[in-house]
Fold:
Amino acid sequence: MSRHPREGTVCLSLLALAFLHLIDVFIPSSWSHLGTYGVLLFLLVSGLFLLRGIPLVLSCAMLLAGHSLLFLHGGTFQEWGNSITKNVPLLSLLILVPLLQIPFQAGGYLDAVEEFVRRSFDSKQKVVNIFGAVVFVVGSLLNLGGLRFLSSLAGPMYERYGDLVLRTMCRSFVSSILWSPYFATVGLTLVYLHLPVQTFLPSALALALFSLIGGIAYTLIEASGFAKKLHSAAAASKDETASSSEHHMEQSIPVESRRKLFVFLLLLVLLLAAALTIEHITQLSMLTVISVLALVFPLMMAPFVNRQAAFHGVDGYRNGLSKLVTEVMLFTSAGFLGGVLSTLDLGTGVAALYAPLAAFGSYTVILALVLTVLLLSLALVHPILTVTVLLTSIPPDLLGLHPIAMGLSVLTGWSLAMTVSVITPFIVIISGIFDKTMLEAGWRQNKWYMMVMALFLSAGIWVINKLLA
Structure:
């Protein structure tokens, strides 16, 4: 299927933006600065014509507010340039990270994962535990791009276990955004709090696993309440498939699939270790390191994968690239507004709203930050705006929090918002995968989970904050 010429231009512009950013990091020059400004402005103007609905309104509102504040306070062109390009490193990450999926798909490694998961069909406990763990691992590496692969795993299970699969996929995936440096959410937090990833990662990974285990436990407890109804509704189907399912489970995974599954896990560990090592040695930001790895890793894997499958993966990457215009608009406008706020004294007003909460203890402050991001997302305020304003306006020590604890607090609110808010791209994708409305896929499935986990994860962050103090 041929694409609209405008989409092809947008794709080339996105790639140009990512490469210009990397050139500007390693070989800074005036032309790379000007090129970045030019491409970014072209994408913003394109976004005005390509976007619709809430993302367009929100992006325009943030850009208008940022320019108004900058003008009223006599901002300079340099301040404008620094603010408008503030989130370009994040955009580079968003644009290039999906390339990582190509060698995993073309090398058959994701097929091995799929074969492993399909052996968990015989009970809902295995579906929740095994599928949930796989979603967490794949999501941690492949970001939203991994949802396309995960949807192929979820389809057959959904036919048998219904919304249990949807809830498992949703809750396990959002746990991965609490720690993975491959997510722009984590990158945004690290940039605004000036935290090195090796310092942030242990606490973030601990909270992410805490969230994953808590989510799986909650899902299983929730499922047990309607287990009898599920059993009676699916009894006939289960009886018919029991013998074939048992026979399927008795078969061991083929040697080649086991080898590829092992290599897949090994590559995940090596990619993470490489990112941490390169950041430590070069002192580059993790956003830049991940962007470079996303370019180099597929090239290194090229001799070991199926060439035709790799070309097919490249086509899939190009088709998905033009859809990133929404993220470009939101991240650029939010970064611009946050950059402007950071140069003004207006942020002190936001800080003044939260400072009194410190008298009630750190748990109250943590929960307030989580709920701020979460509740505003339900009011159709995108988390990226809320997180940007909070992190650029409130010094963590003013609230009695360690910077890591504050970062985890806003990430937790963002993570939970992804399960219920119709303004997040994640819910849009999930609703399409399971053929439901966004309200059905989000709020109706996860409203109680959202409330319970907000309290549960805030307690986990409180413990982390105590340990870091």
Q: What stands out?
A: The chain has 24 helices and no strands. Residues 197-224 form the longest helix (28 residues). Residues 230-250 have pLDDT under 50 and may be disordered. The radius of gyration is 22 Å.
